[in-house]
Write a structure and sequence with these properties.
This protein is α/β, with parallel strands linked by helices. It is built from eight helices and five strands, in the order H-H-E-H-E-H-E-H-H-H-H-E-E. The chain has a single domain, classed as Beta-carbonic Anhydrase, Chain A. Strands 2-1-3-4-5 form a five-stranded mixed beta sheet, sandwiched between helices. GO terms for molecular function: carbonate dehydratase activity; zinc ion binding.
């Protein structure tokens, strides 16, 4: 296990990565899969345009591909998103089986398991893009803001979530505006933490990897990139 997880991943602007030798051979009839950060970003953007226009293709679900995936996988992006039931990455980006490696935690909170999962995708599968996907009206962010304001502690392991989100709270705003601003600030914080991981940073530096912060708007179904 230790050997298998000795790689790491990150997201940024445009990057490229070679397809790993362990990846499954893609269907000859299928369009070429993204192998650089820029190509991966374009594919996700195109999928989100289809989603919000109600023109989803629901790609890569056919019997031939399912048989191919039994021998290996070659996803082109890692998406670290929230557990919110309204924001499933495969639907939001209109992708199918074998396209995305998704990691989901409340508020995109990081821990060792999440970091190891992202690292596995980048280092072992040569995934060229990591997307941190926050969203409008995030309940975990609201809980963190309200807990700080009231001084109360949350039960069980939920306190860990608000403690991790706490540094991102935007104290320059009040009420719902504070919560909304903190959603974006939290995405930026998580993205910067991932990008600071040494092995991920090294791949970003060579252009093999990009780590990108994004936000999904429930009211418009659009995903947009955060600076």
């Amino acid at each position: 296990m230790r050997t298998a997880l000795t790689g790491a991943a990150a997201l940024g602007a445009g990057l490229g990565a070679a397809r790993p030798a362990t990846a499954a051979t893609p269907n000859r009839d299928a369009p070429p899969r993204p192998v650089t950060p820029a190509e991966a970003l374009r594919e996700l953007a195109a999928g989100n345009r289809r989603w919000r226009a109600f023109r989803e293709r629901h790609p890569h679900e056919d019997p031939t591909l399912r048989r191919t995936l039994a021998t290996g996988q070659h996803p082109f992006a890692v998406v670290l998103g929230c557990i919110d039931s309204r924001v499933p990455p495969e639907l939001v980006f209109d992708q199918g089986l074998g396209d995305l490696m998704t990691v989901r935690t409340a508020g995109e909170v990081l821990d060792e398991a999440v970091l190891g999962s992202v690292a596995y995708g980048v280092l072992e599968l040569a995934i060229p893009l990591v997307v941190v996907l926050g969203h409008q009206s995030c309940g975990a962010v609201r809980a963190a803001v309200e807990a700080e304001e009231s001084g109360t502690r949350l039960p069980a392991h939920m306190q860990y979530l608000v403690d991790q989100i706490g540094p991102a709270i935007d104290h320059g705003k009040e009420g719902d505006a504070r919560i909304d601003a903190t959603v974006s600030a939290n995405v930026r914080l998580v993205r910067s933490r991932l990008a600071a991981e040494p092995e991920l940073a090294a791949r970003i530096g060579t252009g093999e990897l990009a780590i990108v912060g994004t936000r999904y708007e429930l009211t418009t179904q659009a995903v947009h990139r955060l600076a």
